[in-house]
Amino acid sequence: MVTSDEQIVQRALKGDADAFGEIVERWERRIFALAFGMLGREEDARDATQETFLAAFRGLRSFRGEAKVSSWLHRIAINQCITRQRRARVRSETALEEETASSEEASFLAPAHESPAQVTESRERTLLVRRAVNALPLELREVIVMKEFEELTFQEIADALDLPLSTVKSRLYTALRQLRMRLERHGAEAALR
Amino acid sequence: MNRESWDKRMKETAETPEMCARAEDLVAYLYGEASPEMAKDFKAHAELCETCRTELAAFHQVRGSVREWRQLSLGATGANVLAARAFNENASRAPSRQRSALAALHEFFALSPVWMRAATAVLTVSACALVILSIAQAEIRWDDGGLSFRTGAARERLVERTRTVEVEKPVKVGYSQEELDQMVAERVRQERQAWQKQQPPVKIINTGSPTRSTTAARNAPQSTTDATSGNTSRQTVAQRDRSDEEDLPRLYDLLDESN
Q1: Max alpha carbon distance in chain B (Å)?
Q2: B56, B72, B97: which to substitute to probe chain A, counting the most A Cβ within 10 Å?
Q3: What secondary structure letter does DSSP report for B33?
């Protein structure tokens, strides 16, 4: 019998030591994907994921079941990503500007069947997308990442962010529109070089 | 991609008219979350709306680029994300697959052995009987008269009948003459016994002839008195006092006896 997230959290609140581990196991990949989409670097995403679950564990007592566990975790994860980005900006070491070649290689898994030229082209294109996504305002970035990286439904995004369904759709539309503009602009600049 | 082609695309972007009123429908259609009716309706609209058609094509490209980034960056992790999503979708669908309690019970009986089915049936019947008996306030009693069974309704009727009988019984007022006579006789008898107990016991000492003579003397005057009419009660009392004095032991008798 499959237990819901809420039931597992209730078990954790009653002192079941393994219950929170089940929550982590169930959600870590999705939270990691969210963090990766928000932050753009695997290392940052791993740290943010770890901090998300630590914060969730510390705040377990404050979880009153008014919202879904998924919404609660997403909210924590997004806050962790925002905090990390602010810290990075303060230290002037944002992932995009100060990314080294090694970290670029580490976070890029080129398909084996592609030629070196194709790999280079894919890498450049990916870098463009990352920059474009990272340049989006937070409210647009979080919906596009949740949709494209976590593949959540509109309703799930609405629940997680506590937004009306129509707002999620309109934000997604605006995010896609801005991404299109940015990608075309960056593509044009690259072509001009 | 040469400069001319990019210039052309940028020109197209710049020339893109303002967003269509059906932007939300466009997003729902793009991500496959529109209902069949809405999808059909929007498809028909997009054939006529230049804005929606252009944006739909452009958004498909954007999505492809983002997915490429995700796939190339996350690789196996991205696959895990999809696997995790599939797991969670199954988990979320699981409650709908839960059987009803009746179906689960039916399956349990189908798999259980015959003796367990029989025992469960007996237990169920017993439990139902107990519930019915308790609701009916039944009372089962085993005494000298044998097994008796009464329900709460029957008991209530019996109690009611008893009350009725008690009410109809004539109330006893006062005592009958016989009872009064018996009570008076009993009271007199008790008083007499009490009076006799209060009287000091008379120690009769054998004094020989004088005692016998006194007895004779006591009887003599009484008969004399009875014989002579006209004697008064005062004379009788005086004679009794005298005879009592004669009954008392004499001092010399006592001295003789002590010696």
Answers
A1: 183
A2: B72
A3: -
Q: Which residues of B touch A181 (CB under 8 A)?
A: 13
Distance set, CA B246 to CA A148, B39, B70, B215, B221 (Å): 146, 149, 150, 9, 13
A191–B1: do the CB atoms touch at under 8 Å?
Answer: yes
Residues 8-67 of B with CB under 8 A from A: 9-10, 13, 19, 23-24, 26-28, 30-31, 33, 55, 58-59, 61-63, 65-67
Helix residue ranges, H only, A91-153: 101-106, 116-135, 138-148
Q: Is the C-alpha dihedral spanning B178, B180, B183, B189 positive or negative? A: negative
Residue A158 tokens, joined: 């609405």
| Interface residue B96 vs chain A (CB under 8 A) | no
Task: Give pLDDT tens digits along chain B (259 positions).
Answer: 454 554 554 454 444 556 788 888 999 999 999 999 999 999 999 888 888 888 999 999 899 888 888 887 776 454 454 444 444 444 444 444 455 677 767 766 676 777 888 888 899 899 988 888 888 777 777 777 777 777 776 666 655 665 655 555 555 667 788 888 999 999 999 999 998 888 766 555 554 444 444 444 444 444 444 444 445 556 666 666 666 666 666 777 777 766 6
